[in-house]
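so im writing up the methods section and need the RIPR3 protein record in one place, dumping it here so i stop losing it
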Amino acid sequence: RSCSFTGFSTVQSRKLAKSLSRSSVRSRMSLKPPKAYNSLQKGALIWDPKPLQVKKIFEALKKGLNEYLEAHQAELDYLSGRHKDTKRNSRLAFYYDLDKQIRSVERYIRKLEFHISKVEELYEAYCIQCRLRDGATNMKQAFSLSPSTKASRESLVELYRNVQECTEDMCFIEGALEVHLGEFHVKMKGLVGFARLCPGDQYEVFVRLGRQKWRLKGKIETDDSQTWDEEEKIFIPNLHEKFEIKVTELRGLATILVGVVTCDSISFFSTKPQAILVDITELGTIKLRLEVLW
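--- predicted struct ---
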């Protein structure tokens, strides 16, 4: 029984190898590792794809892009309606200005549609490589449990190489997908602490997303207002990393840790600015207010 299984699996593994070779991402897609993707930079390659995380980001990204598409389509419909009315009875200069706005919105809609199709294409290729890798992994496990023969050992080596190639292609696609995530414009809105915040208190807020860092200092004024040395920072979204926020209180030369929290960015892919209120302490006695615009 095991011998017949080995012979059958050897044939199947060779077919799988040919299929994997034909399905190689780089043989079908002219993708280059983008510089903006930290995981693909030389010496920092991550051979650990995260399909579930990529799926969450893809769904949030597609939803956000569709929201933008619907908003601009509604704007186009409104302008087109005005365009028809204006054509009948209005000044010529206003008519041409409106016509120019319509063409501008139409161009932006075409860019959005292309953006969405590109993201869908990348994710479809990612899912294919994920399924191929799972299939090769299952076959490799089955071969490792079967009696060792020359054919089975050759098949194991071939399957191992196929798994590595699929893993490499998945990381490659993650890098290409990350370039299409846009930007997060994060605005500092201040600390909320009620009795915990006193005039003269000084704080340092440190925000990190992967290798991107933002360090800013603030002070509580006598009228309970707050002044910060920076108000806004642009972050490039990352597939694998969450926002890490650290707040410390500055007392002369000493620093006192207030709290460290992490914040997922899934909900930030939206057309509307997202007001974020983060509990810095466990009891929520000090909170940090941020605004994120995608």
